[in-house]
Amino acid sequence: MSDQKLKIxxxxxxxxxxxxxxxxxxxxxxxxxxxxxxxxxxxxxxKVAYGDWKRSGDYARALANHAVRLVQRxxxxxxxxxGADINLALxxxxxxxxxxxxxxxxxxxxxxxxxxxxxxxxxxxxKVFVVxxxxxxxxxxxxxxxxxxxxxxxxxxxxxxxxxxxGDRPRSISTQSIEQAxxxxxxxxxxxxxxxxxxxxxxLKSTLLQLDSSFSERDYGVSSFRDFADKLAQxxxxxxxxxxxxxxxxxxxxxxxxxxxxAPEQVSSAREAGRRAARELFAEATExxxxxxxxxxxxxxxxxDAPDAVSLGDxxxxxxxxxxxxTTQPRWPxxxxxxxxxxxxxxxxFDERRYGSIADLMRACQKDGILRLERDRQGxxxxxxxxxxxxxxxPHGWGLVVSNPQPPVDAVELVEPLPPVVxxxxxxxxxxxxxPEASTPRRSGRGRKTAxxxxxxxxxxxxxxxxxxxxxxx
Length: 474
Known about the structure:
Mean pLDDT is 71; it is low at 158-174, 256-268, 285-309, 391-405, 408-415, 427-442 and 449-453. This protein has 18 helices and 10 strands. It has helices at 14-25, 31-39, 59-65, 83-98, 115-123, 139-144, 151-154, 162-165, 182-194, 201-211, 225-234, 267-292, 309-324, 336-346, 358-367, 426-434, 439-461, 463-471, and strands spanning 7-13, 43-51, 69-72, 104-108, 127-132, 147-150, 238-243, 246-251, 371-375, 381-385. The chain is an alpha/beta fold. Helix 13 (309-324) crosses helix 15. It is elongated, with a radius of gyration of 40 Å. It folds into 3 domains: 7-173, 5'-nuclease (Rossmann fold); 178-251, Nucleotidyltransferase, domain 5 (2-Layer Sandwich); 265-390, no CATH class.
């Protein structure tokens, strides 16, 4: 359902949200701003508001001007605190059962009693958005809906009361530091990397909302998610890359965990020496493993720490050796999971955790010129062979070699004598076999003659039964 256009039903607990906005934010409830924010998520199909409209003043007219259906809450002498909540929940569930085309619901209100309704609608595969103020909306509602839309972020500045103009503004409206969003962004990028999906802007925001439904880029002083990404890039926290019409978000080098390295003046020489030493050690280990009759894992457990230059050089040497010893080339390109399975098939004791992860090993092989990493149209990472290993890469079914090729057969030998036709002279058949090169035209001519012969024979046999019929009266 994530790929479908959202068709939204809006249910408004007016008394709750109007009091909450007035007391915590000092604002007048603006239904127009709320509906505009909802329209950014999808198409609004129906709008229903529940409240005591006899005491609402001009709010009833304002909601009616936006085509909101008003449902009167009947007040009882003893009070009816939860009357609107029950009516709203029943109508929302009824609409979920009877209107299958409506795949998203918006609850405007902050009462925690609606959490049961939210969970039930999610069980019926509906997206649930909650609109309310951060100060008066239950934290349970904010964290368990599909997306929480903070009222503070959607209301324009011109609707603020004079109390706010004097600087007595609530804390919830204050802009947060952009650095506070970095842990959540890192977590979302890691989730996309584990899924082998390209970290595009839209996918990144949807992942952020999956991890924290209360996330909003407006909390950080920007009006769009693109501005939020640009602000992160300006701080050097992420790097933006343009790929066609899409913008990819990646962690910058400064925010990524650094690998241990030698002194700056000895970086290049230390790396080369480490790689050479790793290749020599790996060659000795692979030669000694069959003689001892057990795998290398029995002697030494794989390290769990972040990969360093030595371990990555070890992995690069392993991949180079595997690709060099192949007798039959695999089919390229591969996806990371297929490449990992290929390495485990070639070497059963292969463990990517020695090198950090399979992604770290593939990047190291790309830097060494063994592999090439690219993304497909869906953004998934693919592994290509590079250099000598790519020469034998052909589609399946091409370049097949036959071990015992048969000599070509002469076309004359393929001609076989035709079986004799019933009622046909034998001499004509013998003539056709003796001259196979002219068999086709003679056969066609002979066919015309033989086709006419039975007709003549049939004409001679027809008078016989006529004579018998003529003899019956006598």
